[in-house]
Amino acid sequence: MGKLFLLSEKIRFVILLLIWVFVIFSLGCRKPTPDTSKVHEPTGDWKTVQYNKHQYIMWYSVGYAGGITHDPDCPCYQLFNSKI
What we know:
This protein is of the alpha+beta class and about 80 residues long.
């Protein structure tokens, strides 16, 4: 038999643990590289809508969730800045 089997059980455990740690760190500690070939830009429509004296930018498309945000060019910002 090999020399590893003649060692005590604790020493065998430590040696196998060190081998295991070396294998895990040598194989598993690499930065994943992003696959940029699969970047997909969904097509959709941008629209500016008025609601309750505010202006919003809305994006929507078939098959994708839409989004809406308060327009930075909304007239309410001009009113707020003029009062300061």
